[in-house]
């Protein structure tokens, strides 16, 4: 019992010393005022948002990550989203109304601005930065939740640092809105829905994280003189929260299921669809259709092998999945050529990158060997100064490496020769001293000294 109490005491001491948020907590009212000030989207804030949207749209259009990051740093979108979480934590219905209104205004202006830009831009090619914002994953949910927690903790403490800009970059609220605008401008409903889906999920989980942070740090709830009004406000807040969270929970559940499905399908392909003399050129996994499409090149895979693989789908929790295999291009099957090209280019890039890395390592090794062979890494001005002090009789020093062939054994050795030109011939003691010093400098125990 005493040991258990001691452990509890040590844990409590560790928590209070290292993890207690109240140690550097900012004045609560200052934190609330800081979040409130960022909620309104009028005048300057709205113009900054419009400019940030244009910058993000340009970055997505030209596929520039640096420009997109710059737009996320400029964007003031975090304000109303954190305001919603704060209002729920404080029972502040007026703040919630202002935050939701500003959130809708900001969303509308951002999507409209992006739509206008993409309607007139001459660059209409879909870039990878755009595609990355059309299909949210479970990782986006975790990033939004943890990023929101980091944001509220930073705002509530005195040492704010550069956390808020980092949260804005990590949670990436601006790019999905611009991608939604691209979807409207190009008439692609799937891009619009996918991007807006990602934006909504990020917003909800940042608000949730803000609410959690507010409650964990015990912010003072708003007090009402009229208890009936307090009950009504709480009811409104609860219903709005449920109305917001229900679709978010449902969407997140689908994201989790799709992530598990993708992982299981990739595991199945890696374990069951590897055949001798055949290579997978392309793969396409569709969670909605419950379908795995694979394109093979090389030796044809037999129907029995494909059937056996199809039968083993159930072992990977893919029992209702249909396996579609394409082999060759002459069977009239609908093969996604662009996907194949993408896979080929990806393999080419990966192999080229690997080869370049190997070549760089080989060049560095050869440079080191050349430096060792020529002695250029240790012969220099400093060596001459040492020689003047230690062996003033030496006028010049030449060091070179040579190959020696043993005729009887055909063995080839590398020998280091040091040739010195002296004012006078050194005696045996001086000669031994010179040889030892040169051996230490060159690192060659078999160095041969020649005196001219």
UniProtKB/TrEMBL annotation:
Pfam families in alphabetical order: DUF389
Bilayer-spanning residue ranges: 46-62, 68-90, 102-118, 138-156, 163-184, 190-214, 235-253
Leader sequence segment: none
Entry annotated with the keyword Transmembrane: yes
Coiled-coil zones: 349-376
Keywords: Coiled coil, Membrane, Transmembrane, Transmembrane helix
Identification of the protein by name: TIGR00341 family protein
Organism encoding this protein: Phocaeicola plebeius
Taxonomic placement: Bacteria, Pseudomonadati, Bacteroidota, Bacteroidia, Bacteroidales
């Amino acid at each position: 019992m005493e040991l258990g109490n001691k452990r509890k005491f040590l844990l409590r001491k560790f928590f209070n010393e290292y993890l207690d948020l109240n140690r550097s907590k900012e004045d609560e009212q200052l934190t609330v005022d800081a979040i409130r000030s960022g909620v309104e989207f009028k005048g300057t804030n709205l113009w900054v948002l419009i400019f940030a949207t244009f910058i993000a749209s340009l970055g997505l259009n030209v596929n520039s990550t640096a420009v997109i990051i710059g737009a996320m740093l400029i964007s003031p979108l975090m304000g109303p989203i954190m305001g919603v979480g704060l209002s729920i934590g404080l029972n502040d219905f007026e703040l919630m109304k202002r935050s939701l209104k500003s959130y809708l205004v900001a969303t509308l202006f951002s999507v409209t601005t992006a739509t206008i830009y993409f309607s007139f831009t001459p660059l209409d090619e879909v870039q990878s930065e755009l595609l990355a914002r059309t299909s949210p994953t479970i990782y986006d949910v975790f990033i939004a939740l943890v990023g929101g927690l980091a944001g509220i903790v930073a705002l509530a403490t005195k040492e704010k640092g550069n956390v808020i800009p980092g949260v804005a970059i990590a949670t990436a609220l601006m790019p999905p809105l611009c991608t939604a605008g691209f979807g409207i401008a190009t008439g692609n409903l799937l891009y619009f829905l996918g991007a807006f889906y990602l934006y909504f999920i990020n917003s909800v989980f940042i608000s949730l994280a803000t609410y959690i942070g507010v409650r964990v740090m015990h912010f003072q709830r708003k007090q009402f003189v009229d208890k009936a009004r307090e009950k009504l406000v709480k009811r409104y807040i609860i219903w709005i929260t449920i109305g917001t969270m229900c679709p978010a929970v449902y969407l997140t559940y689908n994201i989790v299921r799709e992530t598990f499905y993708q992982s299981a399908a990739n595991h199945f392909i890696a374990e069951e669809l590897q055949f001798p003399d055949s290579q997978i050129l392309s793969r396409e996994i569709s969670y909605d259709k419950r379908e795995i499409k694979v394109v093979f090149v090389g030796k044809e895979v037999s129907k029995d092998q494909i059937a056996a693989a199809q039968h083993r789908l159930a072992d990977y929790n893919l029992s209702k999945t249909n396996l579609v295999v394409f082999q060759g291009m002459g069977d009239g099957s609908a093969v996604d050529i662009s996907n194949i090209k993408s896979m080929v280019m990806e393999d080419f890039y990966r192999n080229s990158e690997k080869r370049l890395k190997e070549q760089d390592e080989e060049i560095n090794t050869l440079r080191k060997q050349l430096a060792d062979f020529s002695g250029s890494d240790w012969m220099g001005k400093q060596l001459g100064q040492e020689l003047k002090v230690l062996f003033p009789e030496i006028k010049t020093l030449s060091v070179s490496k040579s190959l020696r062939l043993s005729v009887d054994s055909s063995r080839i050795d590398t020998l280091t020769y040091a040739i010195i030109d002296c004012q006078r011939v050194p005696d045996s003691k001086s000669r031994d001293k010179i040889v030892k010093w040169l051996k230490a400098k060159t690192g060659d125990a078999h160095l041969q000294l020649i005196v001219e």
